[in-house]
Amino acid sequence: MSQYYQTYYTTGEFAKLCHTTKETLFHYDEIGLLKPKMIKDNGYRYYLSIQYFEFDLIKVLQEANMSLKEIKAFMIQRNNQNFVNILREKSQELENEKKRIDNMQYRIQQAIQMTEYGMEMQHMVPFIEECEAEHLLTIAVPNKELTDREMMDYVSEHLEYCHSHHLTEELPLGTIIYQSQLLQKNYQENRYYVRLNQAFDDPRYWLKPQGMYATILHEGFYDTIDESFHILFDYIEKEGYQIIGDAYEYEIHSYFTSLDQDQYLISLSIQVDKK
Fold first, then answer.
1. In this structure, is residue 255 part of a structural domain?
2. Are the beta carbons of 216 and 152 closer than 8 angstroms?
3. Partner of 13 for a Cys bridge, out of 9, 21, 42, 198, CB 3.0 to 4.6 A?
4. End-to-end CA distance of the chain
5. 27 with 149, same domain?
């Protein structure tokens, strides 16, 4: 087919053939990526028809997220092994980007569901619900009292760990209060957590058990949450249940949805069973 690839095109004709602009071809010429086969004395540039395939290769590599600098380096040292190496590298980059997009899509859908759930449910009214098991990634609340700056650094490090391991997590943070403390009416948090969409082999991993939970949606911020604990404890006793597990606090409506902390909505759930 070599007889078909000997036609010369002006810059405008070649741009039309490649479905691009003359400015793009001028730029590629300027940086040495794709130069015309012939430049006449009058300065007119001419491209050979076979150069269409070089332009197509450049376009394919750009779609694989390669920079023009990377493409130029590859074009100069083009061979089978380099082609395989560069595609493997870009394939991994695309896989990482896919994980990031899937992560964000999951978080967006969960945020929609959680916000609508809070809008539909009654607030400050306890109820019993059956809950599926949940995968959590947790960190212990420090024993010593931290400054605000130290606490933010501590939480930020935990969230960065999630990001660096491509974990699909939800924000904001939740908290866990151990059963032993609940029975003593001590509502101080023991662990912070983010929710995952799957199990994770890590010392920080925590499985929230499947089962029956007494739940109340607390209106307001954490400084008034003791009121909801009292309501929930009275409800558990009145309905003939007993506490058999930990408490889980999670913000349904938070700084994502409100400027006023008094309008926050915090889900407070305690694992229970019939006496």
1. yes
2. no
3. 9
4. 86
5. no
